[in-house]
Amino acid sequence: MFVTINPPIQNSSGKHRLHDSENEPLAAIISIMRRTSFPPLIDSFGRVHTSLRLSVTDRCNIRCFYCMPEKGAEFVPKDNILSFEEIHRLARLLVQQGGVTDIRITGGEPLVRQQIPRLIEMLAEIESLEDLSLTTNGMLLAEQAQSLRQAGLKRLNISLDTLNATTFKKITRREGLEKTLQGIDAAIKCGFESVKLNTLAIKGVTEPEVTRLVRYALDRNVMLRFIEFMPLDADRAWQQDQVFTGDQLLSILQNEFGSVEAISRPDPSQPAEEFQVEQGRIGIIRSVTAPFCGACNRIRITADGAVRNCLFSASETPLRGLIRAGASDEDLLSSIRSCLAQKAKAHGINEDGFQPPDRPMYAIGG
Ligand code: SAM
Ligand code: SF4
Predict the structure, then answer these.
(1) Which class would CATH give 47-194+207-212+292-364?
(2) How distant is the alpha carbon of residue 44 from its chain centre?
(3) 107 CB less than 6 Å from ligand 1?
(4) What distance in Å separates the CA atoms of residue 73 and residue 337, rounded to the nearest whole number?
(5) Which of 150, 223, 309, 322 is the most buried (most CB within 10 A)?
(6) Whole-angstrom Cα distance, residue 359 to residue 66?
(7) Is the CB of 366 under 6 A from ligand 1?
(8) Alpha carbon of 59 to ligand 2 centroid (Å)
(9) Is 63 in the pocket of ligand 2 (CB under 6 A)?
(10) Ligand 1, closest atom to CA 228?
């Protein structure tokens, strides 16, 4: 196979993160071809895709304003949601013939889907899969953490935007802070390879929470990562000035904790910049102010079986119809490769004329 590798990508502000070395994609390609004897999932900019975000539902038990509408959320009809067998088939195909090495289960809220541990068990058995993780709002974790771990889940990310019950209700339009906190404590006890907390960074919401959240994470010896608010809300109310930026966060951290040292990142496809704060590490994901599109290695499958090459892509490739019509593995993989071939250079949030995607976050899978 002949592969053209373009140089890393930089946006007009010069802020795209770059591949640390131009040889990195080539090394990934060689390693995947050795392991699978198939060409890797590569796009027209030379980005090799090894990380799969798998949404298992678009339903959720809360209604975060930055993701879902307060009322009248539209959900995919149940019959259109992929079965566990269909999900497993796509995942196996992508791992064994596409070189995917890690899968993150997401949603909607993945733990509202019945029998998720059974799906985890099925995925954990896929040969050559190196990492299996899940992102959750934590509300159902107290009941499910142990069975998820036993089923083979390796890592958990739990969303936690506030430690204040009133703010929690304002964000989520539901009660539930206590259940989330119980879920976090239960997860920490279950021996996952890692438990991380995700905090959305939103101006006017996050500032009063920063110090308390960081202390909460440091006390539990888990990493907390702040993620800049992106235009993926169902209400389409996002404004650039609502993004609580990585720079603004850093200045609060420096004021509060004194020394905040950047830690060098060995893997450019990892979106979080990490900082040493007291005895622990804090992450900042500058998805808006310093996008990591240049090193993106992610491919996504929605709960209703569409493959997306980016959170922000204007189009997607439906696979469910193909699967249910009896498509071969080869046909499916070829549709996935065509979808990836159309992947844009960058999400373009900061460009004039940017249009958010048709689907909001809960319907794509974060
Ligand atoms: N329900 C689970 C949860 O909230 O963790 C998993 C799905 S949620 C869509 C996955 C992640 O996306 C969460 O960490 C959430 O905070 C993040 N997210 C949701 N809307 C976002 C937005 N508009 N910008 C950036 N991140 C967002
Ligand atoms: Fe539900 Fe997660 Fe979206 Fe919040 S961010 S509404 S928990 S899917």
Answers:
(1) alpha beta
(2) 22
(3) yes
(4) 31
(5) 309
(6) 13
(7) yes
(8) 9
(9) yes
(10) 25
Residue 123: closest CA among 156, 146, 101, 99: 101
Q: Give the C-alpha distances (Å, rounded to integers) separating 348 from 232, 306, 339.
A: 13, 22, 18
Q: Give the integer Cα–Cα distance in Å for 103 and 98.
A: 13
Query: Where along the chain do its domains lie?
Result: 47-194+207-212+292-364
Mean pLDDT of the chain: 92
Beta bridge partners of 159: 198
Average pLDDT over every residue of 19-31: 65
Distance CA 268, CA 296 (A): 8
Tokens read off for 252: 């609060």
Ligand nearest to the CA of 229: 1
Pinpoint the alpha helices (H) of 105-204. Answer: 116-124, 141-151, 165-172, 177-189
Q: Which ligand is nearest to the CA of 65?
A: 2
How far apart CA 211 and CA 195 sit, in angstroms, is 19
With a pLDDT cut of 90, the percent of the chain lying above it is 87
Say how far apart CA 224 and CA 257 lie, in whole Å. Answer: 15
Q: How far is CA 345 from the centre of its chain?
A: 19
The contacts of residue 249 (CB under 8 Å, 6+ apart) are 201, 206, 210, 226, 284
